[in-house]
């Protein structure tokens, strides 16, 4: 694989209250023809996360045609699992319903934050409506810390989810440090999930402590996943599987890395891979976990 970077798509200007900074975890949602709605997570002046979007023509993806005037999804009610942020993490269509999975988070005391996975649906006008006030995937007896970014694919047999699962908090340089990898879950309806502890992507070495934002496609008999992994700084990894549960990491085949200079020169993360009109594209973030904006790349033909 070799990805050719097409450039930065969007970064907030900072003059909108709910979109002061960041455009993290981008997601492409096809509208019609070559038009796409790109969802992302922004931050307001208080650091809370909102889900917004831009509209682009994939034929000229670095020219933004429209920017959301209001967020699709904002923080939930005081004390709820998402009262500090509602960050879109995946969108999938099943029959007549568009499911929007999002990361809800709130602030902690002993640790900085706690995450869980919430669900909303998008109506015909593209407005998000919460499925419930509480999360659909949260910490449990087997997963006591938190769950976050996910990829969800409906199937004829069952729905599949790959999601971030926190394994522990440790203390590093006097501060709490999170450790998380990617697990697998399955469902009959996309709402109620069976988690049996299957680890999809595990740490490759003791230096790694964060693996996040899975993006999965199926090519023939092979499941393919792109994701972020971090030791000193985020990079984009790649893995393959025959059954979607047991994966083999092949990070050396990811085909994309940081640039020598510029907005994605320090880190590259949060990939979203999608196909359109015979081409394969990747949305991704660069420096600052989305603070420097998001860009797009296209897979070069071989």
Write structural notes for this entry.
The chain is mostly beta strands. It has one domain: Tachylectin-2, Chain A (5 Propeller). It is 0% helix and 55% strand. The chain is built from no helices and 21 strands. The strands form five sheets. Strands 10, 11, 12, 13 and 14 form a five-stranded antiparallel β-sheet that branches. It is globular and about 45 Å long.
Give the topology.
Blueprint: E1 3-10, E2 21-32, E3 35-43, E4 49-57, E5 64-67, E6 85-94, E7 97-107, E8 113-122, E9 128-130, E10 147-153, E11 159-172, E12 175-187, E13 193-194, E14 199-201, E15 210-219, E16 222-230, E17 234-241, E18 247-249, E19 269-276, E20 279-285, E21 294-299
Short overview:
The protein is an all-beta fold and 302 residues long. The protein has no helices and 21 strands.
Biggest β-sheet description? 5 strands, antiparallel
Write the CATH architecture name.
5 Propeller
- Poorly predicted ranges: none
Oligomer: single chain
Mean pLDDT: 96
Q: What would you call the structural class?
A: mainly beta
Overall shape: it is globular
Q: Considering the protein shown, what is the CATH homologous superfamily?
A: Glycosyl hydrolase domain, family 43
Q: Count of helical segments?
A: 0
Radius of gyration: 18 Å
Strand residues, percent: over 45%
H/E topology pattern: EEEEEEEEEEEEEEEEEEEEE
| Total individual domains | 1
| CATH class wording | Mainly Beta
Helical content class? under 10%
């Amino acid at each position: 694989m070799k990805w050719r970077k097409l450039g930065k798509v969007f970064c907030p200007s900072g003059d909108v209250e709910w979109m002061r900074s960041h455009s993290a975890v981008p997601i492409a949602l096809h509208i019609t023809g070559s038009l796409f709605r790109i969802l992302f997570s922004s931050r307001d002046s208080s650091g809370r996360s909102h889900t917004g979007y831009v509209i682009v023509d994939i034929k000229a993806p670095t020219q933004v045609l429209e920017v959301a005037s209001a967020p699709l999804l904002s923080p939930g009610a005081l004390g709820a699992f998402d009262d500090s942020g509602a960050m879109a993490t995946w969108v999938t269509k099943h029959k007549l319903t568009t499911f929007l999975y999002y990361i809800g988070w709130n602030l902690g005391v002993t640790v900085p934050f706690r995450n869980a996975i919430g669900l909303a649906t998008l109506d015909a006008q593209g407005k998000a409506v919460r499925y419930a006030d509480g999360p659909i995937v949260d910490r449990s007896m087997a997963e006591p810390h938190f769950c976050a970014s996910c990829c969800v694919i409906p199937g004829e047999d069952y729905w599949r989810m790959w999601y971030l699962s926190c394994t522990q908090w440790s203390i590093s340089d006097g501060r709490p440090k999170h450790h998380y990898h990617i697990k697998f879950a399955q469902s009959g309806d996309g709402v109620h999930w069976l988690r049996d502890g299957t680890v999809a992507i595990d740490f490759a070495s003791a230096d790694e402590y964060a693996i996040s934002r899975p993006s999965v496609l199926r090519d023939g008999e092979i499941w393919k996943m792109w994701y972020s992994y971090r030791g000193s700084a985020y990079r984009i990894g790649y893995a393959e599987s025959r059954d979607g549960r047991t994966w083999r990491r092949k990070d050396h085949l990811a085909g994309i890395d940081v640039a020598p200079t510029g907005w994605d020169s320090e880190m590259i993360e949060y990939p979203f891979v999608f196909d359109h009109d015979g081409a394969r594209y990747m949305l991704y973030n660069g420096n600052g976990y989305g603070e420097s904006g998001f860009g797009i790349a296209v897979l070069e033909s071989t």
